[in-house]
Amino acid sequence: MWLTPLSTLTKKRGADDPKIVGGKASRLVWLVKHGFAVPDAWVLGVDAFTAALHELPPACDPKQLLRATGGRSAHERAAEARELILKAVLPRGLGVEIDELWRAESARSPWGFAVRSSSTCEDGSMLSMAGLAQTRLAVFGDEDISEAIRAVWASIASGRALGYLAAHGIRDVGMAVVIQRMVRAEAAGVMFTQHRDRRARARERVVNVGFGLGAPVVDGTSTPDMLRLDEKGRVIESLIVDKRAALVVENRVLVRKEVTSGAQPALSEARTRDLAEIALRLEKLDDVAHDVEFACDEAKTWIVQVRPATGRGFPAGGNATTVWSSVNVGEALPGVATPMTWSVAGAFSEEGFRRAFATLGCHVPKSARLVGNVHGRFYLNLSEFMRIAAQVPWLDPRTLVELGGGSGADEVAAQITDVSHRGFYARLPLTATRLLQQQLRLDEDVRKFEEWAERALKLHHALDLAILPDEGLARTVTDSQTMLERTGTVMLTCASSSLGAHMALKSLLARVSPIDADRLAQALTAGIRDLESARPAIGLMRVAALAQAEPEARVALEGEARGLDAIPDGPTRRALVSFLDLYGDRAVREPELSTPRWKEDPRPVLTMLRVALRGETLESPTRVLEHARAQAATETNKVLERMNLIEQTALRHLVARAQKAARMRERMRGWVTRVLGLIRDVLLDGQRRLLRLMPEIHDDERALAPSGFVVPSVFFLTVDELVSTLRNARSDLAPLVRLRRAEHVRDLARPDPPVTFVGAPQAVQPPPVGGEVLRGIPASSGVVEAKVRVLVNADMSTFQPGEVLVVRTTDVGWTPLFLMAAGIVTELGGALSHAAIVAREFGVPSVVNVPGVTLLLRTGERVRVDGDQGTVERLDK
Hints:
The structure is a single chain. The protein has 877 residues and is of the alpha+beta class. It is built from 30 helices and 25 strands. The strands form five sheets. An eight-stranded mixed sheet has the order 18-25-24-20-21-22-23-19. The model has no long low-confidence stretch (mean pLDDT 86).
């Protein structure tokens, strides 16, 4: 007999051994033994998983997969194993038991079953595997249960699960399965309890809860109510959000059902008291912090599962005290990156940081991991980064963090206590000489690079990729990588020059205006002539001016034109063609290689033109730039009046130097974009060959096509895997592509983790708390009052000229809207970011790094944006 009721396991000595039933089932048995309300469940032990694997090739054995983790072919082997396990034959007799279970229990299970993982390493005191193994909800019928069991088994063969286990020294793992009757939940969520703190007078619990099933709360894909309770269940603090949807089961299907309750609490007082009682009982039995998943029907509160809250995995390269931040790297590439982008941008960032530190004379440990993957997002290992930077005696880690717009400076500073400067001083003569030579020849290096890059791009555009043999395209892929590395090296030198000039200018200004030095350093360096990052916005506004004077073109644009063919031949269309020739490699999230460029899909450009034409008048870009320069000159004169002759001379020199360095940095950033566009061209030709080598990938993409835009499969490989495929005619990577595509979709469904966190991000984040005044970092001077337009994705079509643009982050692809916006507010960013520099050039009041602003502000409400003080004041009460 394979399936055992949970109640039966409570009566057999040793039956709750995690090695037999897995960690989750073992914990459920413990709960039932102690009288907690747990939904009826049946356990499929580890022996069934072992028996199924006996019928498969040895490569599917978790021992073999864990041994191979970290190798070059680890992901391919795991993906192949996953595909085989999904097709595994169930052990003899199990199918009959599943059929009997469904026939006996279906009438009592109107919401079906939840089929959950229960690995031998799961839900322990040191390991949790939370979010790594599979759970299937609302499973109906014996065939669906069988399929769900296979999916749970196969989830052990994911790259992340294997990497997590290998990193914790696990050499073997088994997978049991829990088949649990689903609660007809009116509300559900997760409660975090505390262990006994002798210094605290009482314990508190934090509850995150929403309507319907708890999966969106636990997975972090919805914003729940947040309650803080005392030991008796009284609410100490609450944040009740306006919940718009609930996950429920209707007609045997999971659906998101719209709710119109507004900001009504999901949890009743009776259920709140239930949770307090559950917490007290758990703490008396086991004095640790608990992570309790619960579901409430109309009569009681059920415990779905419990795990010790201490079992959390850390991003690779970090530990419990590591501070991670997405402020800089997340601003450059926000959101979830595809594996191909990770293989290109991750290596580019890691190597770039190492090279920059080495240039400064710092020693970088070989084992240091400076960039980490957190739910598919780029994060900087701030602890490691600042520990290396602290080798420079006069480089204050707090200053670097603040310039980047990040938080966590205090945590990092507390960790940097034993950094030796001896090696830095020993290398200082050589380092200083090298840095001086580097800065003296920077203009010449940029000039030589641009001559070389222009020739390389001309050769690339003259090359017909389609006629190259596969080996030739593989060589082109590696050559494009080399070109990106060379471009990045020059760009980092320019960025270092820009940072150094800004810090020197700020230090000088602090002598005459200590409090206002930051704002003055920004204001005095505005008015940069010929700024590369501002060109797309200026060019697009000039096209809009032509369209405004050409009725036929204007009608076509306002009529939702989707391509250039919809625009009649004339000045507007010719100007658009020229614009795309110049800036066609641009896009929102352009560092993500899977993002279509404007030259491939001009709809974002046409949308921004449509927005511009909604305004009563079009602001002249020339007049805007002249106004910004005039303001900078006025500010400069005011400061000069407070300085002596030597300080005046130094100020003029440093302002000019900072402007020049910023101009060169933005020029090189433009070159990075052009090279990324070249790499994308090559990868798209690789996609064509991939479909030829692996027709099943083509079938997968066609099956996904009705759901909308499908990311080409080549972006779910790495550079090395693509090169190997082209050179060796490999046709065995289809399972790997499917696995990574599924993981990518899962990461997209997660909300962004906190901008800065220590150790590991919490599974459930409380919503941001804001008041009438939200605070961030001033990025561009000025004060404005206007209505808000919150854009949570790249769809700009709803934006109206004269509104305050509120987004998570911006890049150059957003800058055309800057000339139409009254103000700009972002969640990420620093005063030296590309977008902040452009905002200052256009004189648009801007505040960056405002935590949770896209959730706190609503489209249509009026705000006052103060780009001098770094505040956003809500005017609608």
